[in-house]
Amino acid sequence: MEFNVNGEYLIDSISEAARIAGGSHGDAAGKLVMIEAHSGGLSVSSGSGGRSVIFEFPFINGRDSGLDILEYGKLAADGRMLSEVIRKIPGRLSIKASTSYKISISSADGQISATIAGFPLEQLPDLAYGEFPYIYTLKASDLAAGLRNTASSAAKTSSRPILEGINLAFDESGLTFTATDSSRLAMWKAAGSAGFSQSITLPARNAAELLKLIGKSPSGEAAIYISNSQAAFTTSTFRFCSSLLTGRFPPSEKLTPEGCKTELVINRKHLLQGVKRTMIFAGEKRSSLVSIQVKDANSITISSPMSEMGKEVQELQSISGETEASAVINGSYLADALIGTESEYMKIRLYGTMKPILISSLGEANYFHLISPVRTASGMFLGNRQIQKQD
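RESULT FIELD:
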């Protein structure tokens, strides 16, 4: 195969493909990248460990790629080595692969050239895709939002591996992203009927890679192709395929508690800043507990139960229900819930002693977090003094 191209056109995709492929412990086969020159343009692909990616570079492209294919074909190379060599040779390049697994890379004027070792295509992992009986389309920005707003709640390690992923549930009402580590649960919903009912669980580590890819091209539409064992996510620039976790994800439809005792509405940014300040006084990160206590009908007190320092008062937008109310929760969990939305105000609902706390964005029914409170020496209490709900 042989083609000419502006080197900067390929660097990022080759580097990303190599990183996604892995390549730990010096395993060359684990970081191989394939480049294919075909009638439609160029493809850069790689895969390993239950995931794969293909970047597409069509002839018709808004960027000045300088792409000129002289001979169709494929090459396999160490992605990290290939990207570094291309990075060091500026301008338009000539790239040629021989049948002896040698890859020559030279500048357009021929003054700079390099040769690196290629690999037999047979050493590449099998990137063949099976049949996908289901497909769901949505905005790429919505796919990114669903992953971003739930990823932090997935279990890092668990005796139940199914919790180490993000569940995607498709039904007539849309697509619901859910993740939980048993101490907290995050849910985000994309509107638009799927026309089918299906539930899959994407490994959190693969979801993180997918989110990075979408971040490079968040506009336009995305499509999700689904089978029993894998899912493929496509945009105009890439196709990312992932294996799925097996097992039944715990149902979350009925997890929202009933009988709200106190509802607080507060400025999101101010609360987030206060939580971060309070966590400084909590000492060890694992003990970053934050206490929220209603001070009066207009304000709350934020403090650390681990320290007498760092107490502050913040104004409420509104309050309804019992006003002698407090809760102690993991500050990192609360910060994650507040970061995941752009809403100006947040609702915090307290349901009673040691019952989950519901945090949602005001005016957005598609996003909420449930966080289990933490019992301390003073515990969590709800008083009986009432205040009328403010509109």
